[in-house]
């Protein structure tokens, strides 16, 4: 059983701030600066080129992949790390498309734009009459049929937190001969995931949100063992080669998911992730889910009692959402800026969503109550009316 009061003490949380945005960029673990300094000084500084072996840099993508694998229910040895999530979406979707002659990529309107853009680009690149079919999230199951090549979904909707039933949709897809690509950006570290148990084909995700790897932290990719020896990596970089240091002229894919590696791994970012995963290694994901639900239910009850102008945008059933809660308000952007100015950090997603993440590793019931009090004041006194809250920043 994880002691969440103890994990809270492992993070740097700025004074006077209640951080409900760990679902977008996780906070800094206290151990990270020293681990990064070690990678810079002792490894890069003193070991120089020998660090690839001596400090284990070359083996890190698979080693860190296994530690993430525990959190997402992957078989050992079937997750690797590197690049950005958008790149890993490209590889997973391209690999899946290469395994079928069917033409439809099925996704939903709750998917993150990058995933849909990647699909559009791949359709042009493949040039075999592929089609992207985007349906409402609740209609996905009804559209799984024999024309569908790949079902590509983000398990937890980044705006509303709506949670897809991965087990049911994957089983239905499999029965119809459809391959699955799951984006776990808002799932990894948010709730227990069981890729192996569900029989998912491919999965991808990022490590800078719930997993606290820091801005620019590398993405991960999972390939089911049954495809590991045949999946086409789509981006044939030298570090995905079977023998990178043989420097052969022609490409031969590496063993298993290692073929999904592309080029040089981000060593300093991996050191930061190593430090945050030291916390995650000890987290009981069922306890995390129970606590996340308790916190988010408390938040919804508090906000709904105090702020009649806010409309719940997330599913009310906690088992039908991830670890975030969203409310709608016509002045959502300015209202969120006012909340941030008063110490409660969430974020805004167009057109009108105020989004708050619940991350039990460092948020507790006292934080929820304090956040509700601030939000109630902001909404009750229309504190967002000040002109300085109305102007939109480039990054929100
Ligand atoms: C669901 C989802 N997919 C893809 C991305 C893109 O990730 P990245 O910017 O790391 O490529 C994000 C976040 O930005 C996301 O939330
Ligand atoms: N990756 C981000 C970035 O580099 C800058 C600002 C925001 C992000 C995000 O992660 C957005 C995120 N995927 C979302 O859920 O909206």
Automatic annotation (TrEMBL):
> Which reaction is catalysed here?
3-hydroxy-L-kynurenine + H2O = 3-hydroxyanthranilate + L-alanine + H(+); L-kynurenine + H2O = anthranilate + L-alanine + H(+)
Q: Point out residues bearing the modification N6-(pyridoxal phosphate)lysine.
A: 209
What GO CC terms are in its UniProt record?
Answer: cytoplasm
Gene name linked to the record: kynU
GO terms for MF: kynureninase activity; pyridoxal phosphate binding
Family designation: Belongs to the kynureninase family.
Q: Tell me the residue numbers annotated for binding pyridoxal 5'-phosphate.
A: 85-86, 112-115, 154, 183, 186, 208, 238, 264
Q: In which pathway does it act?
A: Amino-acid degradation; L-kynurenine degradation; L-alanine and anthranilate from L-kynurenine: step 1/1; Cofactor biosynthesis; NAD(+) biosynthesis; quinolinate from L-kynurenine: step 2/3
Any Pfam family from its record, for instance, is KYNU_C
Name its co-factor(s): pyridoxal 5'-phosphate
Q: What is this protein called?
A: Kynureninase
What biological function has been recorded for the protein in this entry? Catalyzes the cleavage of L-kynurenine (L-Kyn) and L-3-hydroxykynurenine (L-3OHKyn) into anthranilic acid (AA) and 3-hydroxyanthranilic acid (3-OHAA), respectively.
Q: Which UniProt keywords apply?
A: Hydrolase, Pyridine nucleotide biosynthesis, Pyridoxal phosphate
One of this protein's GO BP terms?
Answer: anthranilate metabolic process
Q: Describe the protein's quaternary organization and the partners it interacts with.
A: Homodimer.
Under Enzyme Commission nomenclature, its number is: 3.7.1.3
């Amino acid at each position: 059983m994880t002691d969440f009061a103890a994990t809270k003490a492992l993070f740097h949380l700025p004074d006077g701030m209640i951080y409900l945005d760990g679902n977008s960029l996780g906070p800094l673990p206290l151990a990270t600066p020293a681990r990064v300094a070690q990678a810079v000084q002792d490894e890069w500084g003193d070991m120089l080129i020998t660090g690839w072996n001596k400090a284990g840099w070359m083996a890190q993508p698979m080693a860190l992949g296994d530690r993430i694998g525990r959190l997402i229910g992957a078989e050992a040895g079937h997750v690797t790390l590197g690049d950005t999530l958008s790149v890993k979406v490209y590889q997973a979707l391209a690999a899946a498309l290469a395994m079928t002659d069917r033409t439809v990529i099925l996704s939903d309107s709750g998917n993150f734009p990058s995933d849909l853009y990647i699909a559009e680009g791949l359709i042009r690149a493949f040039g075999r009459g592929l089609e992207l079919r985007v349906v409402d999230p609740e209609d996905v199951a009804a559209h799984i049929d024999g024309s569908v090549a790949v079902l590509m979904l983000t398990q937890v909707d980044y705006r509303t937190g709506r949670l897809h039933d991965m087990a049911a949709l994957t089983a239905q897809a499999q029965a119809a001969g459809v391959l699955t690509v799951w984006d776990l950006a808002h799932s990894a570290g948010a709730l227990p995931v069981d890729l192996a148990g569900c029989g998912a084909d491919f999965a991808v995700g990022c490590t800078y949100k719930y997993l606290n790897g820091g801005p620019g932290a590398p993405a991960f990719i999972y390939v089911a063992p049954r495809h590991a020896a045949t999946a086409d990596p789509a981006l044939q970089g030298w570090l995905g080669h079977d023998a990178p240091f043989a420097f052969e002229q022609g490409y031969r894919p590496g063993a298993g998911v290692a073929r999904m590696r592309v080029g040089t791994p981000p060593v300093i970012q991996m050191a930061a992730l190593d430090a945050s995963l030291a916390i995650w290694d000890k987290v009981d994901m069922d306890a995390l889910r129970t606590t996340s639900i308790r916190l988010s239910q408390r938040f919804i009850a508090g906000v709904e009692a105090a702020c009649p102008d806010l409309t719940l945008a997330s599913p009310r059933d906690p088992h039908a959402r991830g670890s975030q809660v969203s409310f709608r308000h016509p002045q959502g952007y300015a209202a969120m800026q006012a909340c941030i100015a008063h110490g409660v950090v969430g974020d805004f997603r167009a057109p009108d969503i105020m989004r708050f993440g619940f991350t039990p590793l460092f948020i507790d019931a006292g934080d929820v109550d304090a956040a509700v009090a601030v939000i109630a004041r902001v909404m009750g006194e229309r504190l967002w009316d000040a002109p300085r809250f109305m102007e939109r920043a480039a990054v929100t």
